Every structure is written in C-alpha cells, then in structure tokens.
Amino acid sequence: MNKIRQMLLLQQQLNDATNGIGWENGETKNGKLIDWRRCIYLECAELIESYPWKHWKNIDAKPDYENIKIEAVDIWHFIMSEMLRIYKTAGEGDIDSLTQTIESLPNFHLFTQDISEARHDYYHEISVIEELLEVLFGNQTASLLMEKFISVAIQSHLNLNALYQLYIGKNILNQFRQDHGYKDGSYIKNWDGKEDNVVMQQILSSNLDITPDELYKALSDLYPNKILQ
C-alpha cells in the first residue's frame, strides 16, 4: 500500500463529504469560503505554541512533543488539501501525479527512515516551522511547501509510518466529530477530563494494527453516553 496515496485519497474523501463536491473551487456546499493557506498558518502558530518560546513565561518549561506531533498532523491535513486544490484547478494532474511529486522530493528518503532520537535546540525547530511559513507567504511552488512540511514532520519525530498512523487516527476522529455535531457546535472535545485527541492517541498506542472501522467504534464506545443521548 502506498501510504502517501492512501492519505491523499482519504483527505479527498473527507473534504468531499465535509465541504461538498467541487470544494476545490474555493467554496463549501454551504457557501462558506475556503482558505487552506489560512488554515496552514494558524495551525503552524498552534504548533509554535507547543514550544516554551515566551521569554516572560514558564521559562523552565519543556516542549510538548506529543502535542507537537498532533499539530504537525493537523498541518498535513491542510497541506494535502491545498495541494489537491492546486492540482485540480491548475490541471497539474490527479492524485497519482501528486503522489509521485511528493515521493520525488529531495528529503523524502529521510522521511521513510527510522525516527532519529536526536533533537535540535527548540529555537532551531521553531525556525524550521517559520521557513514553512515563509514559503507559504512567499507564494513559492507547491513542491517546496511540501518539502518544508516534511522537514517539520521529521523534527517532530514523525516519519512516514508515524505520520500515516496519526493521520489515520485524526482522519477518523474528524469523521467522528462531523457525525456528532462538530459543525453545529454541539460536539464536546473534552471526554471526562481528556481532550479527544489524547483519547484517540491512547487507542492507537494500545493497538497499532487497529483498522479505521475499529477505531471509529472504539471512539463511539468511549464517547460519554450522556452526550449521545
């Protein structure tokens, strides 16, 4: 199974279901404008917030690397969405073409290797995130944007396998959210003291081979009964 292609297909399906067919033209089925670039830079800001960068606050705090992984996966959702939009509207090819583009990036081979235990100074890691933002704001090529994301993923201790597992988890969680009132505001993200992202990660860590259907059922089983009634 080609994991990049599988993730692109799932993202296309999620966007089709959530936003309606033709979302690539920049508008949802409900008439809301779509701006994937804004989504990307706001998620990058949330990723930076996972580092103790503030010189006036919590000066002895450590980076929250578990949340950093989740934020990187959130960015990946929107990077893929923007790339799918570009490839569709600019006639650059289909999902198979986009898959080939990603797999031919200069740093993709590093992305397929085991995760290194080494870490940089976290100010350096923040600068790598900001390099992604510079590409985003500079209207650089789609390929360079994806290349910069891979650098962010690698320093977040996500290789292709780890990104795939968390992406599948977050994809199913997003579907679960949509099915349980995320759009109308009735969905509750805090489950008995734990954010739903944390619950999803705990399910994945206890069963690395869990299928998407099994994960959805496990989320349903753990969702507070009083909310479902």
What does this structure look like?
By secondary structure, the chain is mainly α. The chain contains 11 helices and 2 strands. The chain has a two-stranded antiparallel sheet with strand order 1-2. Strand 1 and strand 2 (194-195) form a beta hairpin. The longest helix has 25 residues, at 65-89.
Please indicate the percent range of residues in DSSP E strands (runs of 2 or more): under 5%
Helical residue percent band: 55-70%
Q: In what order do the strands lie side by side in the largest sheet? A: 1-2
Radius of gyration: 18 Å
The general outline is: globular
Gap between N and C termini: 39 Å
In terms of structural class, how would the helical and strand content be classed? mainly alpha
Mean pLDDT, all residues: 90
Pick out the low-confidence regions: none
| Main sheet overview | 2 strands, antiparallel
Order of SSEs, N→C? HHHHHHHHEEHHH
Number of helices: 11
Tally of strands = 2
Name the descriptors:
229 residues, two-stranded antiparallel ribbon, 2 strands
